[in-house]
Amino acid sequence: MDKSVNENTKSTLLKTGFFNRLETLLPKAVLFPTFAIAAIFIYGFIGWTTWISFTDSRLLPKYELAGFIQYITLFTKEPRWWVAVGNLFIFSILFISICIVIGLLLAIFLDQRIRGESFFRTIYLYPMALSFIVTGAAWRWILNPNLGLERLVQQLGFSEFTFRWLVDSHMAIYTIVIAAVWQSSGFVLALFLAGLRGIDPAIIKAAQVDGASLPRIYWRIIIPSLRPVFLSAVIILMHISIKSFDLVMVLTRGGPGYSTDMPATFMYAFSFNRGRLGFGAASAVIMFLAVMAIIIPYLYSELRGTRNER
Amino acid sequence: MRDKTAALAGTSDPATLIGRIIVYFVLIVAAVFFLIPFFVMIMTSIKSMNDIRTGYLISLPREITIEAWVKAWDSACTGINCEGMKNYFWNSVRMVIPSVIISTLIGAVNGYIFSKWRFKGSETFFSFLLLGCFIPFQVILLPMSQTLGLIGLGQSIYGLIFVHIVYGLPFTTLFFRNYYVTIPDEIIKAAKIDGAGFFRIFRKVILPVSLPIFVVAIIWQTTQIWNDFLFGVAFSGSDSQPITVALNNLVNTSTGVKEYNVDMAAAIIAGLPTLFVYIVAGKYFLRGLVAGAVKG
Amino acid sequence: MRIFKCVLFVLIIFSIFGCQGKGGPGEVEVLHWWTSGGEAASLAVLKQLLEAEGHTWKDFAVAGGGGDQAMTVLKSRAVAGNPPAAAQVKGPQIQLWGDEGVLTNLDDVAKAENWDAILPKVVADIMKYKGNYVAVPVNVHRINWMWCNPAVFEKAGATIPTTWEEFETACQKIQAAGLIPVAWGGQPWQEATVFETIVAGVSGTDFYKKTMVQADPAALESDTMVKVLNTLKMIKQYTDPGAPGRDWNLATAMVIKGEAGMQFMGDWAKGEFTAAGKTPDVDYVAAPAPGTAKQFLFNIDSFIMFKVAKKNEAAQKAMARLILQPKFQEVFNINKGSIPVRMGMSEEPFDAPARLAMKDFSESSRSGDLVPSMAHEMAVMPAIRGAIMDAVTNFYNSDMTAEAAAKQLATAVKAAM
User: Fold this and answer.
1) Which of C308, C328, C356 is the last residue of a domain?
2) How far apart are CA B112 and CA A298, in angstroms?
């Protein structure tokens, strides 16, 4: 009996030794498929696109290198590219800041023990659930001067009222901002609401005891403590604005003229509709570089932050 | 948590009352703004074509009919076949369910490793994975179909599911990792001392507290995959096209008589499942965000 | 015993598949963007004809952007090594696909059916890659039409114009009568449609060929082009503010309803009038655009055929043959508003605008005034077409001068070559 116990413990010891080794290997093994996927389908494809951007690929990919010709054309001979880049700047800045202002404001208001809070929240959130292919047509009607808002208000008796941004090449980009804000600000609201719910009420009580007014408490204490939420919101909104494609295609198709073209639609049009795959790839590479210039500093600070936490 | 607002709202002087009226007013105005497009869609979908032709696109229906809904579901032409959206709808269901389940589960395990089983280089790998969130999908269209063709998954529902899993992983991993970071490491250490291994800890310690973040990940993935058009149209076969392709064929057709009521009914049908998910699981969505997804 | 049964079963399965491999009934997968009710019904005729011969039709429809979306899908499938049997591809792009070496040779069908005799040479040349047929034409659209509502003209006391000077006078009268002279769809392809019509109407066939077909940069920035651009911009004051982004069928609806006097559009617009129950020459008049009475800007839809598995070759060839059969040509083209691409067919079943188009088609092919449409991807490679469209739409929608626009046109085309 004694003997068998002894052997048992021995084998457990052996086992644990083996399992310990396994234990350190296991996470890596489990992670390996993801690693392989990322290597091929993210970095492999970025590499592929970069390669193509240095070729003279037209209809379908060709792999013989042709130097920087596509980049030179992109930067020196294509006025539409600069329109697209300019639009992305205007759009991102407005879209991100308006979403944050509206999202934060509504979140603060919703956090005031509102009756029917979940009802309001659902209404603010639902646009996020629908694809823009679904809601885009409705927006096109609403913004169209002959069919939508302008006509409605004029019928109500304000015959001088005009709202023609959609058909004005200088203003059309702002209608895309409106529709984009409508779609995404609910999500930002949810982020902020979640942030507000996570704040320790004791802090606010202490401030109230000190006689601070409500707006002051929000401005000085609560909003600054939401800093991480701002950061996630900006990142999520930025990825939406860089990827914004459906929005433009459905609402204006890049028009009037090409005044509402964006890098994503530009790249698509040249790569797929015009048989200038290499040229489209060059614009995609520039987009990547821009994304990385923004994201890598963020990731750097983010990861340094978690390291300090530990 | 509720205490703070209770404390603020508790004082019932006139100034507070006015404040509350303003708050409600703003909330209601915002709600109206958010509802306008949906309202327009619903109204148009229950109008008759005659009503649409003679009236304006934004006006109340004179008579209510569900004809357009029936047609959109059952008999609208989406190509040479005029069988409505119903087959495409089920194609989408068949595609979405496995993609969401698999990408969420892998994301959960990945998040668990990135937060609780860190090893040298895991942080770097995580940040490289995150960059995958920012790739515009138009870019990977051609290399992806080349790859799918190579591994024999071209133009099939399996290929489509595979693509959705691949490009869903960065997001699900991010969600779970950020959530699991908030679980104290001590619990894991205690479980390890008790002799629990990698998968046992995941099953017994991590999974039981993961419901909120599963809801967030599932909502996100369902919405993304259900609403996707680009992958759906490029990688599906003729018998596995998802509903967004059918919707596109209906709405983007510009020859012949345009039936706006059918278009809108079809659009709402295409949006119903995700809408349903948001409304039903919306409460948990916020809870999941509160629980830690925000701290990204 | 069991094992024996299994082996037998497997053998049976193999023999069934083996049989299918030998060119009996097969399947054609067809990628197209004909998704509207009328178009689908027209194409369904082809499907029925094919099914009558025992083959199956696998439909792969992708609408959007006048075939842009479908082309994206086609490219994606081609690089996956899995192209459909037939795809709706037209004009010079057929040559690009030919370069990729993925198309199948249809010469045996063409010989048996005598395609060289029943197709006009201009058309046959487009369908051939290095002398071999690789595509089948379906129909011929005429682009340079002007659709007029006579009631509007009568109300304004104007006559339907045949020159661009008359056009401006008519516009002024209609505007004075409080109506919209021109129903305009402000999308780049529609603007390009009007633009090329003006090129043909203002400066003649030779200049058209030089600019829209050969894309000669010197001609593109010439004074003649400046004149063309000025004519284009002149029309803008006769359109309504809701024009940008408008779909062409909504613009047609404005003419049908009598809100607007005329619209420049290809003959597919006829389908809208027919659907609204209007009669040609009574409720609406289809006239050649000013200055283009003798010219015929054509747009031909065609299917290219890819190399497919042996078992489906018979079905694919059958489809190619059936498309040019008189029966399908007649039904399809009556429905679509176009005219048959097959020559020598009876005019009997066609309506007045179609008969006029058929007459002008054969006359212009003799006089050399039969020219491919740039806006509808028949004349130049997609890259150059895109460059021309960008320059035109940017000029039309901005305050740019015509001189600057002509220069930009030439630069853009050079960069795209």
Assistant:
1) C356
2) 22
